[in-house]
Amino acid sequence: MHIDIDKDLCIGAGQCALAAPDVFTQDDDGFSTLQPGGEDGTGDPMVREAARACPVGAITVSETAG
Ligand code: SF4
Fold first, then answer.
1. What is the mean pLDDT of residues 2-17?
2. Looking at the 3D structure of the chain, how many domains does it have?
């Protein structure tokens, strides 16, 4: 699974960090960013919840083979 955050869309609502705090956090400017090692948390079912929770749809979760 691959997580992509479109920082041009992100408005810093923080919903993703609330939904999946092990995977998303907010940077110094309040925009969403992956936690260190956050890609490792892609098996977390809350990642999809976070993508849904994002009000601007900035989070894309894509399946990767393997
Ligand atoms: S929920 Fe969406 S808009 Fe809010 S911080 Fe996360 S990526 Fe950005």
1. 95
2. 1
| pLDDT greater than 90 at residue 39 | no
Distance linking the first and last C-alpha atoms of the chain: 9
The CATH number given to whatever domain includes residue 6 is: 3.30.70.20
Residue 19 in 3-state DSSP? Answer: helix
CA angle, corner 16, sides to 41 and 7, nearest 5?
A: 100
Which protein residue has the closest C-alpha to ligand 1 atom 8?
10
> Mean pLDDT, to the nearest integer, of 1-13?
93
Is the C-beta atom of 59 inside 6 A of ligand 1? Answer: yes
Domain assignment of residue 24, given as a range:
2-62
Nearest CA to ligand 1 atom 4: 13
